[in-house]
Specification:
The structure is a single chain. By secondary structure, this protein is mainly β. The chain has a single domain, classed as TolB, C-terminal domain (Neuraminidase). 13% of the residues lie in helices and 35% in strands. The chain contains 6 helices and 28 strands. The strands form 7 sheets. Strands 1-2-25-24-23-22 form a 6-stranded mixed β-sheet, with no helix packed on it. The protein has a 4-stranded antiparallel β-sheet with strand order 3-28-27-26. Strands 4-5-6-7 form a 4-stranded antiparallel β-sheet. The longest helix has 21 residues. The protein starts with a helix and ends in a 12-residue tail after the last strand.
Length: 426
């Protein structure tokens, strides 16, 4: 039954994507088609509480598109390999400026280069890039590409790969030495297939998107905490089907889930992520479980702080705000009237969402009107400082900051520093 439900949701997504292409009524703009649904097989067995029970209990108040690991890894690889990894270019830092409207009324914003990762990618495959609560970029690399098993990305790997985490300072003064901009941390001896990295206190959190349930007290622990020397400290379960992971300065871990994590797959008859959104403490104890939004697939997550979280979800395509303590936040909703976006940045008054299904590289800016409702302002694309368009860059948002990865280069757009007039800085 669950498989039928998942297949029905995927079919509905395909219909909505087709409607967006054909401009049919009710389709509104929506994310690059979420065509990366399948996640991997699993590896090791562990013993703890019954995983089905974990999903129903634990904690007060209750863990990039429908397939972030594949989307991030494959799109990033294609971007880097298709055009070749750029060389050199010392990191330049700034906020960029806006030019006038582009063809069709879309405006272009030029961004200064934050950092070129090309020298760090030689011999490595880029898995993901994201923003931490500290404003730094966290980049996960692996020394090869995991071999697929029957078409699926495996979560357990036969040969232990080498991982490398890059911690990138995005606000360094122009001309800073490379060693002051990028910190490299090696993680070795791990047989799990990790997809995400975030800061967790003074340590690092690595999370794999998939976790298989084998039986009572036997399931994959897909979250692991490492110290800054790359040594493992502890492991715990955060559920199968992880769409996004974001941590806070106070040590909360927010996990959103794509459809298979909500409806169940890989042995989970009652999946941990059935609510679509969960918050955990730094030891993997559940703190918050979504009960307000009917999430079939959480497309976008933006953890602004310990007391403010935004998320955007399928099938309603509403923006939901959680405000206050994670154990019992207040809940409110906004309707952006956009379907299928996978990234949302906000400074509280303005919201920048990617264009949605089949509109790669286009972003829509919305503002709150006098009643508090969202109104569409204008559409934007991004270019580098020389005016070269960023080709469908991968986007990741935290608060008002939007991190863009184009080829091996990182750019940052900050709404709270954005003057929208042509020629403005932002």
């Amino acid at each position: 039954m669950r498989e039928q439900t998942i297949n029905a949701i995927k079919a509905l997504k395909a219909i909505k994507a087709m409607q967006a292409v054909q401009g049919e009524p009710g389709s509104t703009d929506s994310p690059a088609a979420n065509g990366y649904e399948d996640k991997g097989e699993s590896g090791s067995e562990t013993s703890a509480e019954n995983a089905s029970e974990v999903s129903a209990t634990s904690g007060a108040g209750g863990a990039l598109t429908a397939s972030a690991p594949d989307a991030v890894q494959n799109v990033a690889q294609k971007a880097v390999q298709a055009k070749g990894v750029s060389q050199g270019d010392k990191a330049q830092h700034g906020t960029g400026g806006a030019s006038g409207p582009a063809a069709g009324g879309t405006r272009e914003r030029r961004l200064d280069l934050a950092v070129d990762l090309a020298p760090y990618l030689r011999g490595w495959t880029l898995v993901s890039a994201s923003l931490g609560h500290d404003g730094r970029a966290y980049v996960l690399l692996i020394d090869g590409e995991p071999v697929r098993e029957a078409g699926f990305v495996p979560s357990g790997l036969q040969a232990a790969p080498r991982y490398k985490v890059l911690v990138v300072e995005l606000r360094s003064p122009a001309g800073s030495a490379a060693q002051d901009v990028v910190e490299e941390i090696a993680v070795e001896g791990e047989s799990f297939n990790y997809h995400y990295v975030q800061p967790l206190g003074a340590d690092l959190l690595l999370v794999g998107a998939r976790s298989r349930y084998y039986g009572r007290d036997q399931y994959d622990l897909n979250a692991a905490v490492f110290d800054r020397s790359g040594q493992p400290l502890r492991r715990f379960l955060v559920g199968d089907g992880i769409q996004s992971v974001q941590t806070t300065a106070g040590g909360l871990i927010w996990t959103s889930f794509f459809d298979e994590g909500v409806f169940g797959n890989y042995g989970w008859s009652r999946p941990v992520g059935e609510s679509g959104l969960i918050a955990w403490d730094s030891w993997g104890i559940r703190v918050f479980t979504n009960s307000e939004a009917d999430i079939a697939d959480c497309y976008a997550l933006n953890v602004v702080s310990d007391h403010e979280v935004w998320f955007y979800y399928y099938t309603d395509f509403k923006l939901c705000r959680l405000f206050g303590p994670a154990v019992q936040p207040s809940v409110s909703f906004l309707d952006p009237k956009l379907a299928g976006s996978s990234v949302v940045a906000t400074d509280g008054a303005r919201f920048l969402l990617d264009g949605g299904y089949n509109r790669l590289g286009t972003y829509t800016l919305l503002r709150r009107d006098g009643s508090g409702a969202l109104t569409r302002s204008e559409e934007w694309t991004f270019a580098d400082a020389a005016g070269r368009p960023l080709q469908a860059p991968i986007g990741y948002a935290r608060g008002a900051a939007l991190l863009l990865l184009d080829e091996a280069k990182l750019y940052v757009c900050r709404l709270d520093e954005w003057n929208e007039r042509p020629g403005g800085r932002g």
